Every structure is written in C-alpha cells, then in structure tokens.
Amino acid sequence: MLRTSTHIRTIVLQPTPFCNIRCRYCYLPSRDDTSRMSLQTIGATFRRVFESPYAGEQITVIWHAGEPMVLPVSYYEAAFELIESLRPAEVMIRHSFQTNGTLLTREWCELIRKWGVSIGVSVDGPQQLHDANRVTRSGKGTFDLAMRGIRLLQSEDIPFHVISVLSNASLEKPEELHAFYLEAGIVDVCFNVEESEGDHVSELMQQERAQVGERFHHFLQRFWKLSRQAPGINFIREIDGLIPRIFRPAEADTGNDQVEPLAMLNVDCKGNVGSFSPELLGYRNERYNDFLIGNVHRHSLKQMLHSTAMKAMVDDIQAGVEACRQECGYFSICGGGAPVNKLSENGTFASTQTSFCNLVQITPADLILSAFEHLDPTAVIAAQHNQTTAYAGHYR
Ligand code: SF4
After folding, report:
1. Is residue 216 part of a domain?
2. What is the pLDDT of residues 136-179, one digit of tens each?
3. What's the CATH number where 17 sits?
4. Domain that includes residue 12, residue range
5. Which residue's alpha carbon is at the smallest distance from atom 4 of ligand 1?
6. What does the pLDDT look like over 33-59, one tens digit per residue?
7. Is the Cβ–Cβ distance between 294 and 273 less than 8 Å?
8. Domain count of the fold of the chain
C-alpha cells in the first residue's frame, strides 16, 4: 500500500450521468443516461464512510459528472439533510457543484446559500470562443444561458469560480479572455487545456507535446501579467493555487490525493466505487476490474481497500510515483501526477511524464520560479514561510 494512514478527503458523487447540453469536447460516455443516484445509495455511501476508520476531518463532496442541476433542488435538499443526519460531529462536510450554469435559478441560489455550497461555473471565455464548443443538444451556443446564470450568482452575492477550457483557438487569445473576465466581473479563474479523453480527440493534442507546452506557457505568462497590471482578477488557480505547493515547509506532504488509495472516493449513480482519478470511473479495463473496487450496497470500505482491483492499481500507481520521485525535478510540487493521464497517454500507471505534467505542473511552476527570481528578498522569505497571499501580491 502507498500509505497505511488513508484518509478520505474528497468524495465525488455522480448524481446523474445525464447532461442537458452537449459540449463538443465532452468525453463522458453516458451523458444521455437519465439514471439518478437514489437516496438509498447516498445514505449507503455516507454510512460506509462514517462507520469506517478512514473518514478525514474535512471532506469535500463534489456533485459532478453529467450536469448536477438537471436534478431538482428538492433532490439536493433531501440529500444534504440525509448526509447531515449521518455526519459525526468531528467530521466537517463541504458540498461543491461544478455546473454549466444554464439551469441556475433563484431557488438554486437559496440552496447554495443555505448550505454554503461552493460553486464552479464552466465558461470558456467570450461568446465566440465559448459557443464554438459549449453547445446545446441541437448545436446552439450556450453562452447567453451560462452568462445569465453567472449574473444571477452575482446579483445574489454568491461567490463562485469559473473553469475555462482552453482550445487551440483560445490559447492565442489571453488578452480577449482577460478582457472578458474583467467585463463580466469574474474574479476567480481556472484553466483546463483541452485534452483527448474517452472518445474525444483534442485538436491540441495532435500537436507536439513541447509545442502545446510552449503555447500554454505564453498564454499563462501573458494572462498573469495582465492580471497583475490591473485590479480585477483575484485568483488564477494555475498560479495562485500552485504557489503554496512550491513554497511550503520541506517536511510537508505533497498532498496528491489522486495517488493515495481512498483519499478520493468516486461513486457512480448505482453505488459503484472507484478511487484515484475520478475520470477512471466509467472506463473499461480488464486488469483493474473497470477500476471498480466495490459497491456501497455490498462492501465496506475496508473490503474495498483490500480488493484485488485496488491492490493491482496501488502496485502500479506506486511504481509510477516511485519512478517520478527518482526522475522528476518537479516531484516535490506534483507528488506523482494523475494516474488517468499516465494510463491514457503512456499506456500504464507505472510511468512518469505526460502532457498533463507539462501543462498542469511544469509550465506554471517554471513561470512562478522565474518570477521568484525578480522578487525582493523579503517577499521570498514570506513565501517560504507559506505566507502565500503576501507572495502573490508582490508580483506586479
Ligand atoms: S510532473 Fe509528471 S513526471 Fe513529474 S512528478 Fe509529476 S507526474 Fe511525475
């Protein structure tokens, strides 16, 4: 086993595989399936977690995979109440939605506020870029609907972050994206470079790995500079989220939940359970039993931890992490990467570098470290003591 002190820190629940829109880069294999996770399955999941010795003190519950808001507000009201009734006093729960924003209403805002739900909205930038990929089932752009949702959150004073997928076209347009966020009053942004996943083949991933990395480097460098030159963007995940991982005490854990068994518990709407990268749930694989370690209706977490599929995955993921530790200068920041990317790009968990490394770890870390060289020494000391907000504020 990678660790003996396993703690569940994140539970990714699939309330339904169904999505009301059909993004051109979507990789979800069951987005037309209207099944929903029953309250019995939600109850069984949390009973398993809370009765086990593995529940972390703080657990983030992410309602994801498909569009969570296709189910009614009353569904989540009942689900949150049920989880709350089972929760031991010493465990804190934070709910989180990643949504396309098209179905947001005042009723949703009330639920979000009442339960302190954290919200991420998927918007790919200005209308032309967004509508090129994020379309309805009949092929119409969803920009107006998503922006209506964002304006509603703003009018209700509900904080949110935005995730933007960067396509081949948008990588050339950091100025346009920056101007769009400022004009829309969006202050917290995350970027995902469009990947090839499932049966989706990204135009970007047809290019040389080094070329995509270089293009993303230029994009991020320009975007960061623009954001520090004028007020408006408060948080860029790829920069401000990575700084604490770079400037942390030497003895601190790398905190990579994707390589730690049970740190992320991923549950589909039928109660099937996976661990490690959430994207693995739903993929087929003979060697690892389709990445399933059990089902909440039949197995305890202890049984899942000792299942044959878990053991096989742990052996290979651990081999990959150890190879990363030996070979990669970014290991202390990354902690061994994302198993799903290693498997899909290199054909095995027991491997190291991927395009994902380049985009998510290496490019942003290089940018930050190069900016670090231009800082005054007091800012550096503050950063090394993990006063990361002070550090981020010094780069202007
Ligand atoms: S950046 Fe890539 S190669 Fe380096 S530790 Fe992470 S996964 Fe391994």
Report:
1. yes
2. 999 999 999 999 999 999 999 999 999 999 999 999 999 999 99
3. 3.20.20.70
4. 8-246
5. 328
6. 899 999 999 999 999 999 999 999 999
7. yes
8. 1
